[in-house]
Amino acid sequence: MSKIDHKPGADALAFLVDQHLSPTPENYTLAYMALADPGSPIGRMVEAFTSEGFRLRQSDADEIIRLHLTRSVRGAARQDRTQHDALRHQALKLGEAASSAAAATGAFARELSAEAGSFGEGETRTVEIVARMIERSQSTASDLDATASEVAALRLELETARDDAQRDQLTGLGNRRAIDRHLQRLSNKGSPRVVGLCDIDFFKSINDRYGHGVGDRVLKQVASSLSSACAPHFVGRWGGEEFLVVMESDDAAAGVALLDQARADLAKREFKLRENDQPMGQITFSGGVATATGDHADSIAAIHRADAALYRAKAEGRNRICSD
């Protein structure tokens, strides 16, 4: 029996420990494939993130996994979206048909009512037939109106479900899917993008000291502050304690100014524990800004550059904004 080589697996686990990444199946697969084939797309992306001495953050690993290790999942998701869009299209068509039929039937009933008044007394039998037709037409029109209402409710449910699929449940901001689609729309129409990546300073210590319930409330407050300060620009939750702001512009300086104002606004807020009104101290974030002018891949590259700028802001003392 040939000896089993455990070294590749051990190297992958050692890589995860070195990068401070959890040994999840996804992370392990990422590490194993990057080390086994450094020239592969996965290997090259991992090398790009770690070549200058930076650690591979979980958000970076998630992005690589999303791009290269979930094709089958994305294929299934595309099929689900196709089915969803087809269902929505059918609902729209059915709603329009029901509404049109209801209007036509109602109009027919009104015409019959008008004609019935013109029959003479000697035509009683004809009047009775027309009366029954009118009654039946009115009943059908009522049923079609009810059907149209049901279809409208279905359409609303479909739109709500689609919106929920792109919304972060904790903060109410757009999630990774919404961010990706927003950036894709901007690149498709040729608009330049300024992306700003923000990370709450010392967030782990907040969770460790006060618990995840308080941490969640801080995340929601930061999300609200960013949304208000950066309106009308797009703000989404990138993951964990990170948020992404997108400006439809090529002015990086304006992006830095926008995030710096948002940073200052947040620093002025008073955070207190709900249970005993104890002050929590100042909550701040650091940010990195970069610009994209090309296709969607350029947006992803800009996010990576913004992340590198964010690292610099952290290294320089936090509570500041840097640009690439």
Automatic annotation (TrEMBL):
<keyword id="KW-0808">Transferase</keyword>
<dbReference type="InterPro" id="IPR029787">
    <property type="entry name" value="Nucleotide_cyclase"/>
</dbReference>
<protein>
    <recommendedName>
        <fullName>diguanylate cyclase</fullName>
        <ecNumber>2.7.7.65</ecNumber>
    </recommendedName>
</protein>
<feature type="domain" description="GGDEF">
    <location>
        <begin position="191"/>
        <end position="324"/>
    </location>
</feature>
<dbReference type="InterPro" id="IPR000160">
    <property type="entry name" value="GGDEF_dom"/>
</dbReference>
<dbReference type="GO" id="GO:0052621">
    <property type="term" value="F:diguanylate cyclase activity"/>
</dbReference>
<keyword id="KW-0548">Nucleotidyltransferase</keyword>
<dbReference type="InterPro" id="IPR050469">
    <property type="entry name" value="Diguanylate_Cyclase"/>
</dbReference>
<dbReference type="Pfam" id="PF00990">
    <property type="entry name" value="GGDEF"/>
</dbReference>
<dbReference type="InterPro" id="IPR043128">
    <property type="entry name" value="Rev_trsase/Diguanyl_cyclase"/>
</dbReference>
